[in-house]
Amino acid sequence: MGAVLSALGTLGAVIAVGWLLGRTGTLGERAAPVLARVVFAVATPALLLVTVAHADLHLLLSRTAVVTWSSTVLVALTAVLVLRLVWRRGAAEVTVGTLASSYVNAGNLGLPLAVYLLGDAVAVVPALLFQLLVLAPVAFAVLDARATAAAPDEDPRSGRAWTLRVRAVVRRTLSNPIIVGTLTGLVLAALPWRLPEVVYQPFALVGAAAAPLALLTFGMSLAVPRTAASRAPRRELALAVGLRSVAHPVLAWALGAALGLPAPALLAVVAMASLPTAQNVLVYAMQYGRGEALARDAGLVTTVLCVPVLLVVTATLG
After folding, report:
1. What pLDDT digit, counting tens, does each position of 93-142 carry?
2. In which band, very low, low, confident or very high, does the pLDDT at 155 lie, cut at 50, 70 and 90?
3. Can you say how many angstroms the Cα of residue 101 is from the centroid of all Cα atoms in its chain?
4. Where would you find the membrane-spanning parts of this chain (predicted)?
5. Residues 47, 216: contact at Cβ < 8 Å?
6. In a domain? residue 157
7. How many CA atoms lie within 13 A of 40 on its CB side?
8. Going by C-beta distance under 8 Å and a sequence separation of 6 or more, which residues neighbour residue 162?
9. Which residues contact 271 (CB under 8 A, 6 or more apart)?
10. Do the domain assignments include residue 8?
């Protein structure tokens, strides 16, 4: 558990620096959106290219991956059903709420947790790849679709209007920097030969800035004075926190036990499912200007709850 506390302490220190920068206005009023844009368009794509290019794609066929993917899909579908069908939220708000409920902090916290608690960094790969190859592309496609409208002189119900809209969505999706970085890494990982490491070094150097910049952005967002309009809706926040901190670990345990995972593998999938909402969700929300308050507050609350949740998981399964 020392690994968990150490990782959380490191995250907390960087977030505190971001809060101080935002509170004092050292970087100016527009610093947080600019940093979010740098993370979204430059640092994160570089990090994902290197990460996915070095991933073992055979892990996608393991029982551990099946449990990770299935539990994540169930959590995401639950969030979509409640937000869309029960509470009638818009597509963009549903998308951000679903990410806040299902997108875990696999990189910043999951990696050190896997290394120090589980003794193997491979444990984080199924969750990381699922988020990069499935959750993020689907979310961006939905958010881009909301930003794309038919031409003013077109009947939005006509076949030509739909064709233009589909083409625009595909074009925006395939030009999304994060999707481009992920797909490029996937192609490189599937090649029968490896590029020299010197080719990856510039991308690794730039990608190393993704995590600290995202944390600084998160801290700066916490320094913004709260108003009624800037607070996350209580129901949406309760749903995201409940799914993220309670439902997902329970689902991972149930599915892992049903598939007969050995004790170490079961501990790994449940620990990864117990991770808090990733700060990247806030970066994505800021990029598209939707659900920023929910992404920020869900990240904060689930990070605080991460320690007791992981203590229960390790005491029960460790």
Report:
1. 999 999 999 999 886 677 657 756 666 656 777 888 888 778 888 888 88
2. low
3. 10
4. 6-22, 34-55, 67-87, 94-117, 123-143, 174-193, 199-225, 237-259, 265-286, 298-317
5. no
6. no
7. 19
8. 150
9. 113, 114, 117, 118, 123, 310, 313, 314
10. yes
Domain count across the chain: 1
CA distances from 288 to 76, 142, 143, 147, 201 (A): 20, 11, 7, 9, 30
Q: Name the residue range of residue 240's domain.
A: 2-133+196-317
DSSP 173-234: HHT-HHHHHHHHHHHHHHSSS---HHHHHHHHHHHTTHHHHHHHHHHHHHTSPP-GGGSPPH
164 phi, psi to nearest 5 deg: -65, -40
Assigned token pair, 134: 């499935």
Looking at the domain assignment, is residue 10 inside a domain? yes
**Domain contains 140:** no
Q: What is the pLDDT of residue 309?
A: 92
**Contact call for residues 221 and 22 (beta carbons, < 8 A):** yes
Q: Kindly report, residue by residue over 18-76, the tens digit of the pLDDT.
A: 999 999 989 988 888 899 889 888 988 898 888 888 877 777 778 999 999 999 999 99
- The CATH number given to whatever domain includes residue 53 is 1.20.1530
